[in-house]
Specification:
Blueprint (H helix, E strand, L loop, with lengths): L1 H67 L5 H49 L4 H10 L4 H8 L3 H14 L1
Helix pairs in contact: 1-2, 3-4, 3-5, 4-5
């Protein structure tokens, strides 16, 4: 009986270790993906900063040209030269916003999956609550095992674990 209980415990420990390793591997892959997205956002932010600097320099240059040229066409010239820069900056900002949104969605999905994994490991045996309820009503382990169609050893194991955690 003790050997069987020890074998069951060993199998449970091995199962938990395998699942933990698998979960850790998946989490590491997700973290690597998030890191890659963060690097891409950083690169895009640097590109925006570079474009902003270029935009400011171009604006100052155009302003100087505008001051040198005092004519009606100078406003159109400034508009014509600044429009492409402005459009590029807007496009890059839209890309950053899309990547940021995607990153947040992935983080939320990851958080949900982590909660599911945690919930599943904490509540992996729905029969545990039934066993504990029936035991609280005064039934012995053999009767509980028959009612729930479980092995007597499994019922006794759950009862022992509940006493340890209590």
């Amino acid at each position: 009986m003790i050997a069987m209980l020890a074998a069951v415990m060993l199998i449970m420990v091995i199962y938990i270790a395998v699942k933990d390793r698998e979960t850790s591997r998946k989490m590491a892959m997700m973290e690597a993906g998030i890191d890659a997205l963060n690097q891409e956002i950083f690169k895009l932010s640097k590109e925006i900063d570079r474009l902003k600097k270029s935009f400011r320099e171009e604006l100052m240059r155009l302003e100087l040209e505008h001051r040198q040229e005092s004519g009606e066409g100078s406003e159109h010239l400034v508009e014509k030269k600044l429009r492409p820069l402005l459009l590029q900056m807007q496009h890059i900002q839209e890309q950053i916003d899309a990547i940021h949104t995607e990153l947040q969605e992935r983080v939320e999905k990851l958080d949900g999956k982590v909660r599911q994994v945690t919930f599943a490991t904490e509540h992996s045996a729905p029969d545990e609550q039934k066993i504990l309820q029936l035991h609280a009503q005064g039934l012995d382990s053999e009767t509980i095992a028959k009612q729930l169609r479980l092995g007597k050893g499994e019922v006794e194991l759950v009862l022992k674990f509940s006493k340890i955690h209590a």
